[in-house]
């Protein structure tokens, strides 16, 4: 599946922003500080995003869940 594949339900961030696609989620992670990107929760989110882009199917749901778990781990929704 292409990186432009949308999530079934966008991921809400603070300020009315939303992550709508695999690419937007990946870009969000890449904007985090390097040390934070290396945290296990973000590494899991990255892995599921890559699996979704390469394999599609149910991986898109897992990628969404991975992102939500990483975002909610420290209450981050900026």
3D structure, described in words:
This protein is of the alpha+beta class. The chain has one domain (6-73). The chain is built from 4 helices and 2 strands, in the order ββαααα. The chain has a two-stranded antiparallel sheet with strand order 1-2. β1 (6-12) and β2 (18-21) form a beta hairpin. α1 runs antiparallel to α3 and α3 runs antiparallel to α4. It is globular, with a radius of gyration of 11 Å.
Q: Layout of SSEs?
A:
Blueprint: E1 6-12, E2 18-21, H1 22-30, H2 34-37, H3 40-55, H4 59-73
Antiparallel strand pairs: 1-2
Helix pairs in contact: 1-3, 3-4
Number of domains: 1
End-to-end separation: 28 Å
Sum up the overall morphology in one term. Answer: globular
Strand order of the biggest β-sheet: 1-2
Tally of extended strands?
Answer: 2
Q: Name the helicity range.
A: 55-70%
Low-confidence region ranges: none
Helices and strands, in N-to-C order? EEHHHH
Count of helical stretches: 4
Nearest-angstrom radius of gyration?
A: 11 Å
Name the structural class. alpha+beta
The major beta sheet can be summarized as: 2 strands, antiparallel
Strand content: 5-15%
State mean pLDDT (0 to 100 scale). Answer: 92
């Amino acid at each position: 599946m292409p990186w432009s594949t949308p999530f079934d339900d966008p991921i809400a961030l603070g300020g009315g922003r939303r992550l709508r696609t695999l690419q937007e989620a990946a870009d969000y992670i890449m904007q985090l500080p390097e040390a934070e990107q290396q945290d296990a929760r973000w590494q899991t989110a990255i892995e599921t995003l890559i699996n979704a882009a390469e394999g599609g199917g149910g991986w898109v749901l897992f990628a969404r869940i991975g992102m939500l778990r990483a975002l909610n781990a420290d209450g981050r929704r900026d």
